Amino acid sequence: MNHLFVLWLAVFFAVAGSVRAAQQTFLIQDGVRTTGWAMVYEDTEVSGPSFIGTASGTFQGTMSMLKTFSNMAPIAVEFIELAPATSDNFGLRININETVFNSSGQDWVAFRLETIDTNSLSPQGGSFHPGYGHIHPGLGPLTAPPFANVNPSSNTGVSNVYLSGGVFVDTTLQLWTGIALHQYEDLDLQRPFILLETPIGVPEPSVLCLATAGIAGLALARHRRS
User: Fold this and answer.
1) pLDDT by residue (tens digit) across 22-71?
2) Among 44, 74, 148, 156, which has the minimal tally of Cβ within 10 Å of its Cβ?
3) 0.85 surpassed by pTM
4) Is 31 exposed, middle or buried (0-12, 13-18, 19+ CB in 10 A)?
């Protein structure tokens, strides 16, 4: 990657980060498909959302966006139904492609994606598509370089996906594809949910020392008892 381009991005987002965040709403629709859903986000964390819809079928289309992590805090985006559902149906089913910019000041050794859904479980839910807003890590497929491991890796919808097996270096960009989201729509209800993404950094040396000392202390205590 061009180092001048990375430096420019770092300066741009450092300046942007000093500006107060504003909440934005993006309608998940285009000239081909209207989903009846929207995404709500902070404009200092998410930028350039776009949607390419499919003409028919339960898979409605693909969203793309840039997510900038200026620190180690998680980024949350909310998906909301614009009106109560007029029938029980398969609901929101989209893929998300994210360009992820690590501007946090730390390298990441892992990453967690999770859905937060406080609605009652949809009676339409089953083993493959549970009755809450969920991620399908096996559809797309989900690729999240430099992480090699996606846990869980099956196609079953889950609320939590853990990425590991690589180091996401500070001030670098990566393209992640195939983050598949699904939420059922139930008659007369609106069932919003949140997608929360959290980077996990390399532990500070002081933290590692405390952890090592704690383990050593436990081992010594066990030895004395024996």
Assistant:
1) 999 999 999 999 999 999 999 999 999 999 999 999 999 999 999 999 99
2) 148
3) no
4) exposed
Per the structure, the complete domain to which residue 197 belongs is given by: 3-225
Nearest to 185 by CA among 50, 100, 107, 84: 84
Contact criterion met (CB below 8 Å) for 173 and 101: yes
d(CA 95, CA 181): 6
In SS3 terms, 172-186 reads as EEEEEEEEEEEEEEC
Q: Tell me the per-residue pLDDT of 94-129, one tens digit each, with 9 for 90 and over.
A: 999 999 999 999 999 999 999 999 999 999 999 899
63: which strand partners? 51, 96
Number of compact structural domains in the chain? 1
Tokens of 74: 């998680």
Spatial neighbors of 179 by CB under 8 A, at least 6 apart, are: 95, 96, 97, 98, 113, 135, 140, 142
* CA 165 to chain centroid: 17
Q: What is the dihedral of CA 204, 208, 214, 215, to 10 degrees?
A: 150
How would you classify the pairing of strands 89-102 and 61-69?
A: parallel
